[in-house]
Amino acid sequence: MPWIFLLFAGLLEVVWAVAMKQSAGFTRLWPTVVMGVSMIGSFGLLAMAMRTLPLGTAYVIWTGIGAVGAFLVGIMFLGEAITPLRIGAAVLIVSGLITMKLA
């Protein structure tokens, strides 16, 4: 169950990161509200996962899901650049996540 909590915590991290971008510096109400609610949910689920999982493992996987997820959303929906270096960086992050999970 802690891995499921961690997965959803990471997905909510993507939601709040995208909502933060869409809030235009907290000047738009609804993206700011979505950001706040998803941030609370993300931290809450992360805390639940950390009851069982080691701190380093949980935190690395949470931030990795958020980083790669935000990267993909940026490319697919926000028109951000796809460059070999950015793709390479994402591949390295995913490799680190897999290695951390196996460890």
Q: What do you see in this structure?
A:
This protein is mostly helical. The protein has helices spanning 2-22, 29-49, 55-77, 84-102. The protein is flat. The longest helix is centred in the middle third of the chain and has 23 residues, at 55-77. It contains four helices and no strands. The protein has one domain. It is a multi-pass membrane protein. Belongs to the drug/metabolite transporter (DMT) superfamily. Small multidrug resistance (SMR) (TC 2.A.7.1) family. Gdx/SugE subfamily. The chain crosses the membrane at residues 27-47, 59-79, 85-102. This is Guanidinium exporter. It is found in: Cell membrane.
List keywords for this structure.
single chain, 103 residues, mainly alpha, 4 helices, 0% strand, flat
The DSSP helix count reads 4
- This entry's quaternary arrangement is single chain
Our estimate of the beta-strand percent is under 5%
Our Rg estimate from Cα atoms comes to 14 Å
Subcellular location: Cell membrane
Keywords: Cell membrane, Membrane, Transmembrane, Transmembrane helix, Transport
Transmembrane segments: 27-47, 59-79, 85-102
InterPro entries: EmrE-like, Small_drug/metabolite_transptr, Small_multidrug_res
In short:
Belongs to the drug/metabolite transporter (DMT) superfamily. Small multidrug resistance (SMR) (TC 2.A.7.1) family. Gdx/SugE subfamily. The chain is mostly helical.
Present the secondary structure layout.
Layout: H1 2-22, H2 29-49, H3 55-77, H4 84-102
Family: Belongs to the drug/metabolite transporter (DMT) superfamily. Small multidrug resistance (SMR) (TC 2.A.7.1) family. Gdx/SugE subfamily.
Organism: Ruegeria haliotis
Protein name: Guanidinium exporter
